[in-house]
Write a structure and sequence with these properties.
CATH topology of one domain: Helix Hairpins
Helix content: 25-40%
Distance between the termini: 59 Å
CATH class of one domain: Mainly Alpha
Largest sheet: none
Strand content: under 5%
Structural class: mainly alpha
CATH architecture of one domain: Orthogonal Bundle
Number of strands: 0
Order of helices and strands: HHH
Number of helices: 3
């Protein structure tokens, strides 16, 4: 019971055992052939039947074209890849708060872009030290690429 599988019937137990046994024999036969660039091993899918594995390999088949109707209603909780309900937002935010750390970062980027534009055209009203990047501390002078 390494992968916590609980069979409901003995027939399902037998089916899983047969599937596991087939997988194990396939792996052993592969090892006997030798000289492979890969190795096979057992995992939590080792007792799956060929039908179950083919569904897993095939993936989800999406319809072609535009999807005009879904069964999702506004306010429904979305599920994650493993079927559990997602926590947090289920819709896009309607506004953004530029407080905390993000605000100053956005402001600095906007200021650097504006100064770069002003330096490119070098207007006369701009004080002489601001017409070059020399007023910036040495580590920040590399920001002139903007």
């Amino acid at each position: 019971m390494e992968f916590n599988r609980n069979s409901k019937t003995t027939s399902e137990d037998k089916l899983r055992f047969i599937s596991f046994n087939n997988t194990l024999h396939d792996i052993l036969n592969d090892y006997r052939q030798g000289e492979k660039t890969y190795t096979l091993g057992l995992n939590d899918h080792a007792d799956w039947t060929q039908d179950e594995l083919s569904i897993l390999r095939r993936g989800i088949q999406l319809p072609k074209g535009r999807i005009s109707k879904t069964n999702v209603e506004p306010g429904d909780r979305l599920l994650t890849w493993n079927g559990k309900p997602s926590h947090g937002r289920t819709t896009l935010p309607t506004s953004y708060v530029f407080g905390g750390v993000l605000g100053p970062i956005v402001l600095i980027i906007i200021l650097i872009i504006l100064i770069n534009i002003l330096q490119r055209y070098k207007p006369k009203f701009l004080p002489a030290p601001l017409r070059t990047w020399l007023w910036l501390p040495v580590p920040f002078r590399s920001l002139a690429f903007l």
